[in-house]
Specification:
Elements lengths: L1 E6 L5 H14 L4 E6 L3 H7 L5 H10 L1 E4 L13 H8 L4 E7 L12 E7 L9 E3 L5 E3 L5 H17 L4 E6 L7 H13 L6 E6 H10 L6 E4 L1 H14 L9 E3 L4 E3 L18 H13 L3 H17 L13 H10 L2
Helix pairs in contact: 1-9, 1-11, 5-6, 7-8, 9-10, 10-11
The structure holds 1,4-dihydronicotinamide adenine dinucleotide (NAI).
The site of 1,4-dihydronicotinamide adenine dinucleotide has 20 residues, from loops.
């Protein structure tokens, strides 16, 4: 039996994460889940949005499946997500973006993987007021963090027989910070002569991505641009409800959907479980359960392609449980 930490999260988190664990169980993989609280649920119960208990569990198990957690906008406690990534040094956020037939995505030929640096840039949250009417945020980029995300992206490209790595930056404007990111990625790229390497200014990438997303394969970006690109790319393949992801470092991997807590639909049982279930697929691949992962992935594709038992965001009228059951039945 495998051991993994389970964080249900806030909002629709418990609904979609329970769907994922039930599909994994139905696929015959025995995982002992160590359930812990993070986010609003933990704040309410323990007055701490990121209890040590949850961190310790992930450190021991080295893998976790996590639902989205609430972060208040412009006030309140520091994002538990960001703290979690920093405390466990989950330095890469990896998001596979792949077209699935039957979604409302406008493209049927996207197959790319985004590697977003996860620990620094403006997301370090080093902000302060400068007097009453001005605020300052400090952007940190280091060679070490930039090289390790680049190394992960290039090593992945080799392992998965991908052809090209694209690095996005704004070194034309932020010559020191993004300039350092760019030169770090460039130096890693020089060690992988068999992988095509290209550089693109981030704003231009967004335009090109909307027009010809099939041109992209593996992408590597600093934290902020990576966050924006991941979210936009989810839209290209049919929305937040279907895109999985992982925050990964040397010691641990936390699998979580791209979407947030979706408070507008939380508690109604209508959230799309696909992103969470595909996080389960990524987790299974990570622990070597390739056969179960492939079977679940194919079931998800079948159910979405068939279109009969899909949630509202995919144009259907099934609820979370009905869609999950259809995926299990199709296994
Ligand atoms: P959101 O992803 O929660 O919702 C955006 C829109 O997408 C909503 O209309 C929602 O109903 C829809 N949506 C999202 N997931 C869906 C699903 N599985 N099925 C069907 N529809 C779905 O983004 P929002 O509103 O910006 O963020 C809400 C909260 O979530 C915030 O507190 C934010 O900080 C948090 N958040 C947490 C993340 C995490 O823990 N990894 C990631 C992103 C946001």
């Amino acid at each position: 039996m495998y051991k993994a930490t389970l964080i249900l999260g806030d909002g629709i988190g418990p609904e979609v994460i329970k769907a994922a664990t039930s599909v994994i169980e139905a696929a015959g993989v025995d995982i002992g889940w160590d359930e812990k609280m993070v986010g609003q649920a933990a704040l309410t119960k323990y007055n701490n949005s990121l209890p040590d208990d949850a961190i310790n569990s992930i450190e021991i198990n080295r893998i976790a499946l996590k639902g989205p957690t609430t972060t208040e906008i412009g006030k309140g406690f520091r994002s538990a997500n960001i703290s979690l990534r920093q405390r466990l040094n989950l330095y890469a956020n990896v998001r596979p973006i792949k077209s699935i037939e039957g979604t409302k995505g406008k493209y049927d030929n996207i197959d790319m993987v985004i590697f977003r640096e996860n620990t620094e840039d403006l997301y370090m949250g080093i902000e302060h007021m400068v007097g009453k009417d001005a605020a300052e945020s400090i952007k940190i980029i280091t060679r070490e963090a930039s090289e390790r995300i680049a190394s992960m992206a290039f090593s992945y490209a080799v392992k998965e027989k991908r052809k090209k790595v694209t690095c996005a930056h704004k070194a034309n404007i932020m010559k020191l910070t993004d300039g350092l990111f760019l030169s770090s990625v460039r130096s890693v790229a020089s060690k992988f002569p068999d992988i095509e390497y290209e550089e693109v200014i981030a704003d231009s990438l967004f335009m090109k991505m909307v027009m010809k997303p099939e041109n992209y394969d593996v992408l590597v970006l600093p934290n902020l641009y990576g966050d924006l690109l991941s979210e936009m790319s989810a839209g290209l393949v049919g929305g937040l409800g279907i895109v999985p992801g992982v925050n990964i470092g040397v010691e641990a991997a936390v699998f979580e959907p791209t979407h947030g807590t979706a408070l507008d639909i939380a508690g109604q049982g209508i959230a799309n479980p696909t992103a969470a279930i595909l996080c389960g697929v990524m987790l299974l691949r990570h622990i070597g359960e390739k056969d179960a992962a492939d079977r679940i992935y194919n079931s998800v594709r079948n159910v979405i392609r068939n279109g009969k038992y899909v949630t509202r965001d995919l144009g259907g009228c099934s609820n979370t449980l009905e869609m999950t059951k259809a995926i299990i039945d199709s296994l």
